[in-house]
Write a structure and sequence with these properties.
Elements lengths: L2 H25 L2 E8 L18 H14 L3 E10 L4 H13 L3 E11 L1 H6 L4 E4 L4 E3 L11 H6 L24 H26 L12 E3 H7 L4 E2 L2 H12 L4 E4 L10 H4 L1
Parallel strand pairs: 1-2, 1-8, 2-3, 3-4, 3-5, 4-7
Antiparallel strand pairs: 5-6
């Protein structure tokens, strides 16, 4: 046998070994780790220049959609560090999690409050650290009023509008009683939806301080039922493997988010 034949044989074996390793890796069942970081905002992800300005949560939702569509993912750990944000987007992500045919775990880091807790409560199990800030179940509306300041500066603002409610929320005049009433009704509707969502998913019947916007540290959150266990990423991954009964291959999407768009994304 020539040396060339031996080298060729080794090369072929090496190629087959590499292909086998790659095939094995990508055929194994997967565990996704998806971060929910920063303010939760509704944001376009239609491509082009808008891709440059995507929030971390908007990026995370794109990966979430891909994970939902891929049957090889059997569990998802959501690493949450967010003060909340848009009720619409919080509910939207929460609904996607509830509808997933996968085992889901929320792992709250420094903070998982308001809309971020809305998302966390949609998961099968919720973890938090002892010093995590959890809860803040409530709604908030901020309406600036610059009318007095504009008067002092001698500035008049002329607004032309059609429609009884069209000028509601404009900061150039004091809010009327009717505007306050309409805004309160909207807030109550959102707040009731938030509370019912948490009550259903967390089986919390006590409607005391828990549903009054109060925040809790990890141990307190465990006592009132907002979380299931004290722990972090390590404990969450161990539980995911145990509940699925599989040695899952970890795919960590935190390493992808915030890297900026590729040239393909821009065009």
């Amino acid at each position: 046998m020539h040396c060339l034949d031996v080298v060729s044989g080794i090369s072929i074996c090496l190629v087959f070994s590499i292909i086998k390793g790659i095939t094995k890796r990508f055929s194994r069942k997967r565990l996704a780790i998806i971060p929910i970081e920063g303010p939760i905002v509704g944001q376009s992800s239609g491509g082009g220049l808008s891709t440059l300005f995507r929030s971390p949560v908007a990026e995370a939702e794109e990966y979430l959609d891909k994970v939902i569509a891929n049957d090889r993912y059997k569990a998802v750990v959501f690493e949450i560090n967010s003060p909340g944000g848009s009720p619409y987007k919080s509910k939207d992500i929460g609904d996607k999690i509830e509808e997933m045919d996968k085992f889901t775990i929320a792992c709250i880091g420094e903070v998982g409050a308001s809309g971020a807790y809305w998302i966390a409560s949609a998961c099968d199990v919720v973890f938090a650290e002892k010093l995590s800030t959890v809860g803040s179940i409530g709604t908030l509306s901020v309406r600036p009023d610059f009318s007095e300041l504009l008067k002092k500066l001698g500035i008049d603002v002329d607004v032309e509008s059609k429609g009884r409610y069209k000028e509601f929320g404009m900061p150039f005049s004091e809010p009327t009683d009717e505007e306050k009433e309409v805004r309160e009704k909207v807030l109550n509707n959102i707040n009731n939806m938030f509370i019912e969502h948490v009550k259903k998913n967390r089986k919390i019947e006590d409607d005391g301080d828990v549903f009054e916007g109060k925040v809790y540290l990890g141990d307190e959150a465990l006592e009132v039922g907002l979380i299931d266990r004290i722990g972090g990423r390590k404990e969450a991954i161990e539980l995911a493997k145990k509940e699925t009964g599989q040695d899952l291959t970890k795919f960590d999407f935190t390493e992808k988010i915030g890297k900026g768009p590729s040239l393909r994304d821009l065009f």
